[in-house]
Batch of 4 targets.
Target 1
Amino acid sequence: MAALINVPAKAKRGEIIEIRTLTSHIMETGFRHTAAGALVPRDIITSFTCRYNGTEIFRADLFPAIAANPYLSFFTVAKDSGKFEFEWIGDNGYSSTASVSILVE
Amino acid sequence: MPTTRRQFLSLAGSLTAAGTIPIVTLRPVEATPPMLNTAIRNVVGEAQIRTGKIKLDIPPLVENGNTVPLTVSVASPMTDADYVKSIHVFNEKNPQPNIGNFHLGPSSGRAQVSTRIRLADSQKVVAIARLSDDTFWQVAADVVVTLAACTEEMN
């Protein structure tokens, strides 16, 4: 699945950087009905995790009240060069990952 | 002496000010509906919830409840000794009271989270922060929604 990740390519050691992520997902609430009256089953992302060089730095539990194509922005301290790994987990076995590198000087 | 227009307006203005300010400042603490209250207690337990430290940025009037930008920030030094453990966001009138739980740590640097949410109705949005000393801080904001989300019919 497509994901847009925005992390600065370079940062100074100790700098606080913003990480912005957007992934494409319908986030079907499970509270909507079709015109025929049938309930549309829930299909959402329930969990998002961000790891920085293997250490979890941010985690979110998401609910149907999160808008479609979940956008999340959060902060971290740039400590070492390396990799940010992102993981989205959802209903019906949904799983998606992405990763971005950063150079810390 | 006949009242001049200027006198009349200044009198009317001061009356209006005197009449509206108490309504705004003395608004009673609203009772939270049971579902919202239960959801909050599931996170907080029996701990006392205080107001302050936490800030909720959300537009007071939104046209489309399907995507409402929301930013929660907490005044915290984010050091190993004093940091924000988690931020929890709740709503009052969606079918489900939870919106999201966000888990941070001292390596976050800044206790701020943004996302986009759905609102099914004009309602109150509540954000609660849990600090490293296990105190809870709350803020609430009222949002007026003109086009509701979540429960509409699927085309």
Target 2
Amino acid sequence: MVDFFHAHQAQHYLVLAALLFALGAAGVVLRRNAIIVLMSIELMLNAVNLTFLAFARFPLVANSPMQGGFSQGHAAVFFVIATAAAEAAVGLAIIIAVFRSRTSVNVDEFDSLKL
Amino acid sequence: MAEAVLFYLFAAGVLAGGSQVVLRRNPIYGAVSLVGCFFFLAGIYVLLSAHLIAILQVLVYAGAVMVLFVFVIMLLNLKEEELGELRFTFWKVVGLVAVLATAAVIAWRALGPAYPSTGPARDNAILLAAEGFGGVKAVGRTLYLAAVLPFELTSLLLLVAIVAAVVVAKGKI
């Protein structure tokens, strides 16, 4: 098991990211609670972060074509984290605003835009 | 040796915490297990020698963002009957199958011949890990030299998010 890990390190991280993304996507598809949907979106963002870091640590090319080298992946993760924080703040504010008018967080009931 | 053991340990923690988010009916249990999931993920980031990002993960995700989630869950204080149960309809099964297929395709691409396990990229990766890769200095240089405009725009994004959160959540200004 240890040899298997060292022979295919990058694949381990990428498959873990794929599984985490699938968990998040399943949460968005299956759950109706808007708060849990937002938490599942956070899970998916973290899966993307893990992919960025895995490719920064185990790159496919010998030299980075971009200025800053493979630390560019880390910079991308930094921006994803900042955007996720902003998204969580605004998303939760929207949930509070909708809860005030509907007394519910069930996404199936938020259908006033439906024709 | 230790790296492999730690990876499998952290990966099990990440997947266990993440699955609790999806499976638990009460969102407060989901939020707490999501905090645990983020801590294990920070451990995975350390294994990838992304030390600064691991610290940011604990501070921003497990700290700030999850406090916001727990705060909103407590504020709404949902009753038992408002939580709703996890029931399977036809379209949910279709969605689940689509999700599993997507994950399978991604995993298959990651495991497939597209990703070489040896070669110059791999040697380079080991070299990178040796010289402060992923530390505050290396990532800071990239942020302030190569990505300075997006970095400054991020502060604007956070300001807009603060104002938007207050305007949306507060009924009357």
Target 3
Amino acid sequence: MTRRLKEIIIKRIFFLFACVSILILGLIVAFLFREGIPIFRIVSVRDFLLGGEWYPTFDPPAFGIWPLIVGSFIVTFLSTFIAVPLGVLSAVYISEVAPRPMKEILKPLIELLAGIPSVVLGFFGMVVLAPWLQDTFDLPTGLNIVNASLMLAVMAIPTISSIAEDALYAVPREFKEASYALGATKSETILKVIIPSALSGISTAVILGMARAIGETMVVLMVAGGAAAIPESLFDSVRPMPASIAAEMGEAPFRSEHYHALFATGIVLFLLTLAFNLIADYVSHKFRETGSGTL
Amino acid sequence: MALQSSMRWRYLKEGLFFGLVRLSAFVITAALGGLLFYIIFNGLGAISWDFLTLAPTDSMTKGGIMPAILGTVYLTLGAIAIALPLGIVSAIYLTEYARQGPLVRVIRIGVNCLAGVPSIVFGLFGLGLFVVFLQFGSCILSGALTLGILILPTIIGASEEALKGVPQTFREASLALGVSKWQTIYRIVLPSALPGILTGSILGIGRAAGETAPIMFTAAAFFTAKLPSSIFDEVMALPFHVYVLATAGTHIEATRPIQFGTVLVLVGLVLVVDLIAIIIRSTIRKRKRW
């Protein structure tokens, strides 16, 4: 009897530990709101989100994060545009084309690329890419959307590549064999059979890559330029949300309007990435790869 | 004739496609190679025994980076000490105890969402909870707790993977001998899964060591005159040091060599840690007895 009791107690305790992740998620929400909500006594939610002017230290201050949101989305979309073809095609190479030894080298290599700290990519963008962009395109500054997007793409590629590769790998062998039996070439099989069957996994990869890019801080803080205005060209500077939070929190007086506004920006960022993650979760479960049995 | 040209078109497409696929793999390899080469080439000159063992001097324009290395080690070890037990126990519950159902689904979604939370939001959370609410202030403890939470999903994921890899027959054999479930897990399942869990934790260490945004408001200082004496002291940290030197110094151009040196030490540290994990993993795969 005591043995049974012990087992039950252990199970209960383990359950509590497993709930810690949920608890932390709850605490994150609670503390972001606790420190962020007070700003909405000064500006309305609508003016905060859609206001075109972010002058938090002026007198009177203006707390409109629309330029920050636009900045975040522009660098995210441009980096996705660069990272998706590279990430997906390299996944195709690793899972379908590469000879085995090549595969054994490339997979860890992509893992290492994922391990490079973001501050290092930011540094590289500042010291190498920025002067080069400035000289080549004769710009006032090399710290701009293009630079930030390129460095963000480097961050997103490993995420996209490794998840897409898992999805491609999971496509049943029979699909491939049936396609070859019908006389399709290898590229036709990949493009018309394998990629479509893995599409839900690849979509998940792309969404998670975007989530990674929109939440990334150090790269955009160091190379996006920091101008809180709606950009007119791809060579303009922007100030994405994470950059604004990271750059200004150190200077914002404790519990000032500015401090609350930065936490509120954190809420927006958190909700955006949460939405991306929930969509990714939904896509990967709803449109699970069709196995041969379900056809 | 028409048939022949259509065949030729197919061959051409075939070649084009494979060219593109190979090119993309090459571009990624070249990007990583170029980056590493550039950092090593520019950073190696700054590395010396003094650089690794001395504190910065002359308002951080000369001297070494020892306090930053030490700070990163403290923060990282603290983070893993917090995340490892939590992560392993969560993973044991999810793989060994939990029945598939809505509750487990909610926990899993929670873990996934936690993995997707931006690092700067972890920083804000750490500031709100540990620094302000619990009044730890900006210190090693706050930073280690924040980083620990950041790598928790990584550890849970890796541990789950490792536990799932232990064959069901191991568990059945043990239970058939009359061993209780907990003892089966503790004596049979965990030891078999340990190398896999280890790999995941080492990758977590690499991640924690390289993060900047979560420690900006919770632990990191521009400069500390002396080394930390307790977990309630602020510390310097390698990633934050890189950021500070590259953006906030008054002699940004003059301190370039120190910046490259710091970047090289940081990248070297993180990549060596990751490489150890990768090597352990491939050794396990080759030596697997089941």
Target 4
Amino acid sequence: MDWSALFVSLRLAVGTCLILLPVGLWLGRRLARMRRRRALLEALVALPLVMPPTVLGFYLMLAFAGDGPVGGFWASLTGTSLNFSFTGILLASLVVNLPFAVQPIQRAFEAVPETLREAAWCSGLSPRQTFWRIELPLVRSGVVSALALTFAHTLGEFGVILMVGGAIDGETRTLAIAIYDRVQSFDEAGAGRMSALLLGISFLTIGVVYGLSRRGGRRHV
Amino acid sequence: MFESGHADSPGQALDEQARHGEGLSVSLHQAGPIPLAADFACGPGELLGLVGPSGSGKTTLLRAIAGLTEVASGYIRCGGQSWFDAARGHSLSVQARRIGFVFQDYALFPHLSARDNVLLAVEGDDVATRRTMAEAWLSRVRLEGLEDRLPDQLSGGQRQRVAVARALARKPQVLLLDEPFSAVDQVTRRRLQRELALLRETLTIPMLLVTHDLEEASALADRLCVLHGGKTLQSGTPETLFRTPDTPQIARLLDRHNVFSGEVVEAHGERRLAWGPYRLEVAQGLAAFAPGQSLHWYLPPSDVVLHRRGRPSNGERENPVEGRIQEMVVLGGVAQITLAFDHGAQTLRFEITTHAARRNALARGEVVQVSLLAAAIHLMPDKG
């Protein structure tokens, strides 16, 4: 078992979830209430879903390079490189997982009738109170779905991470990449153990989603 | 703020009160997207019914009063306070307007119990006091014992009561009811209407009831305001509107059938209403029209008197006309009779008890005579 790879994967998954949670809430809510130019933004958010991971990874790698737009800015700010660093794969992971975080939350917000928000305002609740006390509890199952999908998908992401991060031990080598390395070096037993672990985690997350969304009454997967 | 006590008449004083005092006065105008030309007032403790067909702007008006919909021009004043004044670019937020809004689908918060739905609207800092208040409101709408139920676990009627309790728990300055009885069955509707009639006796704020059900509106409201295409056409007590609609259009919107066209003539040495071969006496209003002028007239069905066969009486000398029964619909104890006349396509409709219809051997195709009571004939100018 490659414990450092497991640790990188978990760190990446938790980091991605934590950052995408507020982003998903904000963007999902905006998209759900948007009338104009909604299709364009939805398509942009969904793009990582349909792009081949190697293609997306290639473009991210270009952008993250020292002379690329993002990488150059990052270098001028910190003096370090984005490519082949944990920060780099975290950024890449945020892009890749955007649709998984946004879409379930957006569906959940769409299912909250506009009159409920209006009723809350009429009851004297400010927009902020309305969000915390009415909207957020009602989109809870969507948020759980988003987090679970993002978490599971980050653990399994391979192509993009490999393109951007390579396989640096303890820095960018995730569990999925470690499995590939093991197979390459004919260590099928090690690959098998790690695959079984990933399978278990994936099954658990999806089980949690279905369990919770059943309790919440609605499913947004 | 305003000089008081200088009104010239009691009527003016009341008007003054509605405009500057406790009541609600509304004037909203815009060309689009939803056209509006609405002017009405509602006094403290008064229940005003906004009636009109679907798409007449009733709900839009309620939403504008609540601050949920923006309107291009006009004003909304309530309780001596300006809520909206387009000329000054002034508009209070929904939260600041203090309204109780009962939505058509009730819009209860599905994740909160009945108590918490009401509790959200109760103001105050002390949670225990607010909780007691919320429970008091729930028991006022007779929901004791159901405080912990989620909306899903309540019947339609119970949900409506929670919505009413929530709307009132805010101590609103105006109560807005948007089709509050449309989502429940007939039996529940009757009961809820009765409860609202009792509840409103204890309320001293203006109340607006939007409904497309004329029967409901006239049973519950002190005054009705007829809307069409966002325009307020006529306001008055249900009795006034049903007996004297201003125009044929209003009569039609109020589902009044007996609207006819006629002409003013000089006959028998006095001014009469010419309708086909008949020269009808009219108690009021003919003096305002010149001979030769054409107009519309309306007669409430209650003021059509059937002549009993072979038993003439004095009343029969009043505007007797003869028609053929085109249709007779028996609805329980009441028979609705439609008379056709030789001189025009317009039909006259009235109701008598079913046993009276049997006694007089009324049937389709029979020719009968009726009197049109002169006191009830209501004249309307040709335009409009």
